[in-house]
Amino acid sequence: MAWEISSDVDRFASVAGDFLRSSPVRHTVFLTLIDNLRSRGLHAYGPDKPYFGWWTTPDGDVAGVLLQTPPHPVLFSAMPPAAISEAAEALADRPISGVNMLDTDLPEFVGSRTVVPGMRTRLHRLGTLTPPEPAPSGQARPAGEADRDLLIAWFRDFYEFVHETRPDITAAVDDHLAHTRITLWIDGNRPVSMAVRSQPSAGMIRILYVWTPPDLRRRGYAAGATAAATRAALDDGADEVVLYTDLDNPTSNALYHRLGYRPVEDRAMVTFS
Description:
The chain has about 270 residues and is α+β, with helices and mostly antiparallel strands. It has helices at about 10-20, 30-40, 80-90, 105-110, 150-160, 170-180, 220-235, 250-260, and strands at about 1-5, 50-55, 60-70, 75, 100, 115-125, 140, 180-185, 190-195, 205-210, 240-245, 260-270. The chain has 8 helices and 12 strands.
C-alpha cells in the first residue's frame, strides 16, 4: 500500500480513471480538472505544473487520489485511514499551501500542525429539478460571442469575490463559449445573471459558477439562471447534475435545496501557517 506521485495527467487519468468514474458525483472536481488540464494545458490554473497522486491497495486497486494545481490547496478524494496517514509523508518534499478534503478526514491528516481554517463546502446532487416559484422576471438564453466582454468582466468579478486568482479568465470564457456552456438570465433585454456548467464527464455535469452582480441580487435571477443551466445539463444527457455551496452562505444553500439539489458530502479547506 503506497502513494505514487506523478506530473503526467494522462498517466493519472489512465491509472485512476476507473476509480474516478466509479463515483462521478463525489469525484466531480477531479474529472473536470482533468478535462480542463487536457484541453487548456497544464498551466490553466497557474504558472507551476500540477501533480497527481494515487494510493493503491495490496491488490493493486486505486482507493484514493490527490491532485494539486499550484498555488491552490491539494485536493483529496475520500480514502482509507492508512492512505490519510501516509499522505503527509508522500508529499513531504513538496510545498503545500493547504488541503481540501472531506471534513471527517481532515483531523487525521492535519495532526498537531497549526492550520488556518478556510472555506467549508457542501456537495449537492440533483434529485428532481423544481423551477423557482415565483418565477423571476425574464428568461434564459445561451451566451454568445456578443456577450464575451461582459462574461470576462463577470468571471473576473466572481473570482475576486471568492478570493481566487485565475490567470486564464479569457481562455476559460472562450472555452465555455465554444461549447455553449454558459446560461444567461435576461431581463428587459439585459443580461442580469449567469450560470456556468462543466462539460459532461462520466455522465456528470457540474454547475461551476453562478453570478449575479451585487446591484441585481434578491430578484430571483440566480435561481432562474441555475434552474435553466440545470435543465440544459439534463438536455445534454447528464445522468447526474451536481454543485457545491459555501456552508457559511445559508441563502445559497436554501436556494439550491428549493431547486431540487440534495446534500452528498461536506468538505473543508485549511491553509498551513
